């Protein structure tokens, strides 16, 4: 068989890939992440009983804004890294800026507090369990993000896996805010961040295997 005939045979029956395939896959993955994390949170932990009152305070919405802004930046990174030979681009400052803001707020809060209150601001009541709780709530999203990426064409699987883990953990943290009683930026800047980093590191480690073509 001649080369031209072989190429024509391979191309026979091929149809163009829909332009919105990445959007549809990641929209489905994000929906699975939100619903799955919410079901786990309600089943295992439950919503904090004073959510109605605390939701009327600015500090609660500052806490929610932290993982939400990270999720937006991570979603942009995931969308870019799912395509061949692309870079993270502008999504990188979108992911680092919320962390810097929380760290600045945490430092100001701790320095302004009396020495006796500083440890409480940093460790709160749930520092032992918080990162692992976030890791658990990130599981549905991590599986969904890897599924979404496997149907596309990432050429940097380690970075793509890390971005998928960060997006999953940001969504898990966002849902966890409905349960978590901690209201100190100093707590979020350490223990929330650790919970966010665990799935990110796992994604980076597993990306080359899970996202291999």
Task: Provide a descriptive summary of the structure in words.
With 213 residues, the protein is mainly alpha-helical. It has one domain. It is 75% helix and 0% strand. It is built from ten helices and no strands. Helix 4 (58-81) runs antiparallel to helix 9 and helix 9 (157-176) packs antiparallel against helix 10 (185-210). The protein is globular and about 55 Å long. The protein starts with a helix and ends with a helix. Residues 13-17 have low confidence and may be disordered. This is Anti-sigma F factor. It comes from Pandoraea anhela. The chain crosses the membrane at residues 26-47, 59-78, 90-114, 134-153, 160-178, 190-211. Keywords: Membrane, Transmembrane, Transmembrane helix.
Helix/strand order, N-terminal first: HHHHHHHHHH
How many structural domains can be distinguished in the coordinates?
1
Rg, rounded, reads 20 Å
Number of DSSP helical runs: 10
Give the structural class: mainly alpha
Q: pLDDT average, as an integer?
A: 90
Distance between the termini: 28 Å
Beta-strand percentage? under 5%
Low-confidence stretches: 13-17
Percent of residues in helices comes to over 70%
Q: Major sheet: size, sense and barrel closure?
A: none
Form type: globular
Number of strands: 0
Structural topology:
Layout: H1 3-11, H2 21-45, H3 51-54, H4 58-81, H5 91-112, H6 115-123, H7 130-137, H8 139-150, H9 157-176, H10 185-210
């Amino acid at each position: 068989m001649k080369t031209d005939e072989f190429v024509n045979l391979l191309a026979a029956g091929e149809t163009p890939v829909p332009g919105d395939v990445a959007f549809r896959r990641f929209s489905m993955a994000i929906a699975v992440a939100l619903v799955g994390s919410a079901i786990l949170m309600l089943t295992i932990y439950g919503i904090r009983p004073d959510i109605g009152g605390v939701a009327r305070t600015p500090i609660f919405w500052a806490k929610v804004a932290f993982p939400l802004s990270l999720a937006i930046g991570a979603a942009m990174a995931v969308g870019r890294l799912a395509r061949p030979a692309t870079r993270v681009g502008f999504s990188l400052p979108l992911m680092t800026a919320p962390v810097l803001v929380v760290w600045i707020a945490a430092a100001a809060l701790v320095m302004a507090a009396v020495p006796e209150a500083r440890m409480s601001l940093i460790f709160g009541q749930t520092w032992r369990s918080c990162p692992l709780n976030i890791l658990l709530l990130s599981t549905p999203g991590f599986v969904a993000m890897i599924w979404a990426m496997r149907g596309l064409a990432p050429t940097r699987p380690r970075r793509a896996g890390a971005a998928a883990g960060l997006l999953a953990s940001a969504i898990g943290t966002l849902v966890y805010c409905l349960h978590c009683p901690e209201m100190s930026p100093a707590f979020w800047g350490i223990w929330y961040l650790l919970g966010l980093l665990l799935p990110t590191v796992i994604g980076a480690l597993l990306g080359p295997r899970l996202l291999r073509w």
